[in-house]
Predict the 3D structure of the following.
Amino acid sequence: MRFEAKHSFFKRVVRHTTCFKNVLLSLAERHQFLMAHHFYMCSLPKSPLEVANVSTLPIDILNEDIALAIKRKYPDMNCVHLAKSATYNGLTYRTGMILAHGSLAGLPEFTEIIQMIVVKDMVLFIVKKLSAWYREHYRAYELKTYTYIFKDTMGDVTPVRLLVMLNEDNSIRMDLRSGIPDSVDELIEEVKRSCGLGGYVRLQYKDTDFGNMFVNLTSTAVIKDLSVIKVVELNPDSTVVLYPVDPTVSSFPSAGQDNYDDSSGSPHTDDTVLFSSSSPESLRTQQWPKLFQIPLFSYDTESQLHRGNAEYMKSQTRLTPGSKMLSDILERLSEKIYTYKAYPTDADFSEVTEALTSKHPCLREPGSFNESYGWKQRLKIKMANYRTLLKAHNTSAELTVNSLKSKSQEEAYPAKCLKRPRRAEVNHFPSLPSGETPESLEQERISLLTELQKRNNRQTVKEKMAKTFGYRRQEIVHKKPSIEDILDRWPALFQMEEINAEFLRITTVPLETKFFASLDKHSSKLLEPIRKKAGVVKERTASILQILDETVDINIRRECILKALMMYLGEPVQHLIRESQNNLESEAAVLDQTAMAIFISTNDDPLHPTKDIKIVIEGVEVLAELPSLEVS
């Protein structure tokens, strides 16, 4: 027993007894009496719920979100009994307490108790869900407010029961104690985890409107209690995904990904191409996948893992990998990770290690909260060593740019001015094409300026822009030139076709097509909070929403949605979208002071009111004669 734990108790005993002949004996006897009292009290029958003070309030005066959550659980309840502190099964809960509840993507989920409701011999919790992010530097979790949810003694109120059909002769009952997930991807992960499935699957549900036929599941809103869903296994090697792209965009090859299959909701689907799997060796062709696929290891490692998985299914015995096997697993995973990212984040490492322990359960670690924390730490160290190896061999420009040899004397520190890709940047600092040098590509750039002066020369310009991509990216990342300098050296980059092509090279995502597809898909959900907003926002968006409801033109509808969203977020529309002035001198003064804006010049023609749309960045006009405002 630590003395510090009983310090106040022992001081109180000495002060009350006023006996100093044998202090240690007196303290020992009094402490024995105290422990005996506690043991005796625990043996007495106690109520599972103990509440000190309870206040009764009508539901209508509570917070709107809290009142809605209570009415969903108890529609006939008009008054609630609220408590600020309650003891349930020996555990004391208080309002404002932060509790760990479940896990997601390898990170624990936290909730904050907002209100406690006493119903008979049970306590219900209204909690605020907090999004957690682990900060390696502080060894702590950063919490942010997410939404209100309703919990029943830290368990979900209405569990959902589903019948999962794996095949005609195999069905499994699955209970979702956390309720129906918000997205189809989360439901697929839950089904795969409950049924022990791997690989790619698609879910179908029994639609009563079409004679109980199984229909592909695209939203979890149609899933209810006692629903029947069917699992359809997919073969990723034989699955072909088509992506709509602008036919004028560069034909830079990119591998198909499931991350962008929702682009079919866009009206811009007239021209479709199949992205080839072949690509330049210096460029990545895929973004980080939603489900990380564990690569095949060596024959010896795969054999041991196969036997270990079989033994784990029988007796829950975990496999202890040897040094050779451990090195093989970490090396193959590092190579696979590098095909997507050179600098993965902590969340990326968690996804990889969780995929590893999910595919090979014999490698799970019972000591960590997600059974893979030790693997994550080993993989971080291995990935750092792998980058050091590639940097030493000078095989990756993305890594050598951060070496001390590539930095100036003022920046010659390991952690200073690191050039790492931002979010969604797949090819942040690509290497130069094989056989090319900066001098030869500089000549290509000069030749490109000449080709721009020719008419009907789009294909040649496109090929030269694709060839000089690595040289151009290195120049932009290294020197960080201004917009005016970039426009002077690479004028072809400020064309609509080349902007789309450059974005595709950097992120492997078609910019215009993806943006409009996502905007059209989520437009109804974006408009819901905007229409519910009152006050000044409602007054400002009233005219825009009226135009939105009266028109069927997709371009006008997109423009209205974007403007209404800016007003809802508190951003003045006139700061971004401005009307050109007839006075050239005043317009020139405005351009010099503009960081970024869209200028619209209009005329008196009611059928074609817009004359020209141009974009200005850092006082420099970079694009003009754009087709519409939403495109700009």
Summary: The first helix runs from residue 7 to 17. The longest strand covers residues 122-135.
